[in-house]
Design brief:
single chain; 326 residues; 8-stranded antiparallel sheet; globular; binds pyridoxal-5'-phosphate
Length: 326
């Protein structure tokens, strides 16, 4: 779909995948007025196809557009576009274990204009690709590197929206994590570099204690974290399973001390791509530590299975999270 100031959204259509022709002065290429979303379509046991909480992606897309001074795509148009693509690509929704059709809606400033001001023309697109299981050889804990040189987001910045620039700015820190022998970067708060915020493109949870009485802590949404839809879903699921879930700031010191005295039993990251990824080893300039015995923990794995069961339709969808498409 296209947008022009004065006309609104127009020319919405489903076309074959192909290159876009863009003017060299296209505003998004220069000033990164660009946002995206990520969600999946899941083949259901009855032969239908469903997406998971797409209304939440639509709402986050609107908030992202507003933060970048772009005209929002109305929720109904976002949902209709995703549905139309899934319906057209129905035969591309894989049916193997933990396989999905990944959907990528995005919006960019398409006006050819080099002045710095909100563009007056935009494109809204949705593309898709079949996606295999994130852990084809079973769930493996990741090692993480605490980024002390770079930050992801500062108060008042764009950390709580999925704008393209956030990801460009994260790449160097991720390279640094890999150079340090780790799989992923962990972001700390920008002001004090004391509090844990996110891991790469995923939110984090810390498990205090074990068994049914375990408490889950996840960094609170201060404006610098992305409000993950998986994060939100896991808060609900964990509470339903009787766990206390607290959204608050969680410091590296508390993490390190908790691992040392055994009170922090598990740490895991969550997001649409991998659902839940346990965190094993933690590296930092100030010294490293290993969470638990470095293997996936029972709370992380239990929640992972519970969420995957809902998404793949293996248990009844009692919360209205599945959106039937085709
Ligand atoms: N944090 C960041 C920075 C992300 O890019 C993502 C992925 O969208 C997430 C967290 C997890 O969000 P969700 O659970 O909605 O996929």
């Amino acid at each position: 779909a296209r947008y022009r100031t004065g006309e609104g959204w127009y020319d919405a259509r489903l076309t074959a995948y192909g290159p876009l022709q863009v003017d060299p002065a296209t505003a998004a290429l220069h000033y990164a007025q660009s946002i995206f979303e990520g969600l999946k379509a899941y083949a259901q046991p009855d032969g239908s196809v469903a997406t998971f909480r797409p209304e939440a992606n639509a709402a986050r897309f609107v908030r992202g557009a507003q933060r970048l001074a772009m005209p929002p795509v109305p929720d109904e148009a976002f949902l209709a576009a995703v549905d139309a693509l899934v319906e057209a690509d129905r035969d591309w929704v894989p049916t193997g274990a933990d396989q999905t059709l990944y959907l990528r809606p995005y919006q960019l400033a398409s006006e050819p204009f080099l002045g710095v001001r909100p563009a007056q023309e935009y494109l809204f697109l949705v593309i898709a690709s079949p996606a295999g299981p994130y852990f084809p050889r079973g769930v493996q804990p990741v090692s993480v590197y605490l980024s002390e040189d770079y930050i992801r987001a500062a108060p008042g910045g764009t950390g709580e929206v999925k704008c393209a620039g956030n990801y460009a700015a994260s790449l160097l820190a991720q390279e640094q994590a890999i150079a340090a022998g780790c799989d992923q970067v962990v972001w700390l708060d920008a002001l004090e570099k004391r509090y844990v915020e996110e891991m790469g493109g995923m939110n984090l949870f810390f498990v205090l204690g074990s068994g049914a009485g375990a408490e889950l802590v996840t960094p609170e949404l201060t404006g610098t974290l992305l409000p993950g839809i998986t994060r939100d879903s896991l808060i609900t699921l964990a509470r339903e399973r009787g766990h206390r879930v607290t959204e608050r700031r969680f410091s590296v010191d508390e993490w390190r001390a908790g691992v040392a005295d055994g009170s922090v039993t598990e740490t895991f990251a969550c997001g649409t791509a991998a659902v839940i990824t346990p965190v094993g080893e933690v590296k930092a300039r100030t010294g490293g530590f290993t969470v638990g015995d470095g293997t996936p923990g029972p709370i992380a794995m239990g929640l992972r299975e519970a969420l995957l069961d809902i998404q793949h339709g293996r248990v009844p969808d009692t919360r209205g999270w599945l959106h039937r498409v085709a």
